[in-house]
């Protein structure tokens, strides 16, 4: 199972059950930039960092998930 499938099968349904993106004023931002990258010498910068998802409520960022991982097997029952 790849990263996109993990999000589609496990994360998105949990967010929907918690009414994220459903309640007025709540929003789920995907692939949202959170840094411009590390400052390096000679005016350069490193690779920018994106969060896989950022949860917002009324334009206030509340939480972020930086990386979804490949999940090789189903989670234990009850999680």
Overview of this protein structure:
- The structure is a single chain.
- This protein has one helix and three strands, in the order αβββ.
- The longest helix is centred in the N-terminal third of the chain and has 15 residues.
- With 79 residues, the chain is α+β, with helices and mostly antiparallel strands.
- It is 19% helix and 32% strand.
- A hairpin with a 2-residue loop joins strand 2 and strand 3.
- The chain has one domain: tt1808, chain A (Alpha-Beta Complex).
- The chain has a three-stranded antiparallel beta sheet, with no helix packed on it.
- It is flat, with a radius of gyration of 16 Å.
- The model has no long low-confidence stretch (mean pLDDT 77).
In short:
With 79 residues, the chain is an alpha+beta fold. It has one helix at residues 3-17, and strands at residues 26-35, 49-57, 60-65. It has a three-stranded antiparallel β-sheet with strand order 1-2-3, with no helix packed on it.
Task: Spell out the blueprint of helices and strands.
Elements: H1 3-17, E1 26-35, E2 49-57, E3 60-65
List the uncertain runs: none
What percent of residues adopt helix (DSSP H or I)?
10-25%
* CATH topology label: tt1808, chain A
What is the count of β-strands? 3
Mean pLDDT: 77
Instruction: Evaluate the radius of gyration.
Output: 16 Å
Category from helices, strands and their pairing: alpha+beta
User: What is the CATH class designation?
Assistant: Alpha Beta
Continuous helix count: 1
For this structure, the quaternary state is: single chain
């Amino acid at each position: 199972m790849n990263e996109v499938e993990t999000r589609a099968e496990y994360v998105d349904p949990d967010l929907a059950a918690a009414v994220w993106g459903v309640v007025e004023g709540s929003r789920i931002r995907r692939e949202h930039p959170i840094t411009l990258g590390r400052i390096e010498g000679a005016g350069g910068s490193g690779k920018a960092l994106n969060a896989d998802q950022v949860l917002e409520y009324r334009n206030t960022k509340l939480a972020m998930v930086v990386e979804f991982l490949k999940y090789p097997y189903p989670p234990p029952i009850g999680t």
